[in-house]
Amino acid sequence: MTGADVLLLGSEPNDPDVMRLLICEVPAARALTRHQNHGEACVWCGERDSLAPLGGAYGWRPHGCPLCRRVRLTYLSAYVSWKRHVRDCEPCRIEWCPDGWSLALGHGIAYEVTKKPEPVHCACGCPLPLTSRRLRPYTENDVGGPRYSHTGPCRSGSDPGPAPSVAPRPEEVP
C-alpha cells in the first residue's frame, strides 16, 4: 500500500497498531480543560457534539470529534504503513525506493493536516523537516507515540534515550 492509498482509502482505523498509538496523540491532561479530561469535549478542538472515545485508563476517558479523530487516525495509519515498509525494505534504510518515498510523502501530508509542529525531532534530537530524504520512522520501538530516526551521521551528538511520553499519566488527570 502506498502513501496515496492510505490517504485516498481513508486510513485503516481498526489496525491494532494504529489504535494503540491513538492515545499517544492526546495532549497531556494538564493541558486540557476539565470538559476535555472527562470526555465532554474534543481534546483537540473543544467540540462538544458527536464525540468518540480515544482510550484512556483509571477514570480518564478522553474523546475526540469525528473530524479530529479521523485526521489523527489517517496520520497514524500513514505512519504505521511507512514504518512497516521501512522495516521490511532493505533499500529504504539507506535511500528511498519508489514505494517508500510515496509512503513518506503520504505521511508528510497527513502530519501537516494535524497541525503538529515542524520540524520533527528524531530520537537522537536532530530536527528534520518532513521533506528530508534522511527522515525515517523509528523502527525499533514506538512506545510513547510515533518516533523518527534518520540516515547518515547524527548531527546532535546526543544519545536517543527513552521515548518522550505524550500521553498523560493517571495521576495528572484533574
How would you characterize this protein structure?
With 174 residues, the chain is mainly alpha-helical. It has a domain at 3-114. It has helices at 3-9, 16-22, 34-37, 66-88, 98-114, and strands spanning 52-53, 63-64, 120-121, 127-128, 135-137, 148-150. A hairpin with a 5-residue loop joins strand 3 (120-121) and strand 4. The relative contact order is 0.17.
Gist of the model:
The chain has 5 helices and 6 strands.
Note the topology.
Elements: H1 3-9, H2 16-22, H3 34-37, E1 52-53, E2 63-64, H4 66-88, H5 98-114, E3 120-121, E4 127-128, E5 135-137, E6 148-150
Antiparallel strand pairs: 1-2, 3-4, 5-6
Helix pairs in contact: 1-5, 2-4, 4-5
Poorly predicted segments:
1-11, 158-174
Could you give a short account of the major beta sheet? 2 strands, antiparallel
Query: What order do the strands of the largest sheet run in, or round the barrel if closed?
Result: 1-2
Specify Rg, calculated over alpha carbons: 16 Å
Number of helices: 5
Percent of residues in β-strands: 5-15%
Mean pLDDT: 79
> Distance between termini?
42 Å
What is the β-strand count?
6
Structural class: mainly alpha
Order of helices and strands: HHHEEHHEEEE
- Give the overall shape: elongated
Tell me the helix content. 25-40%
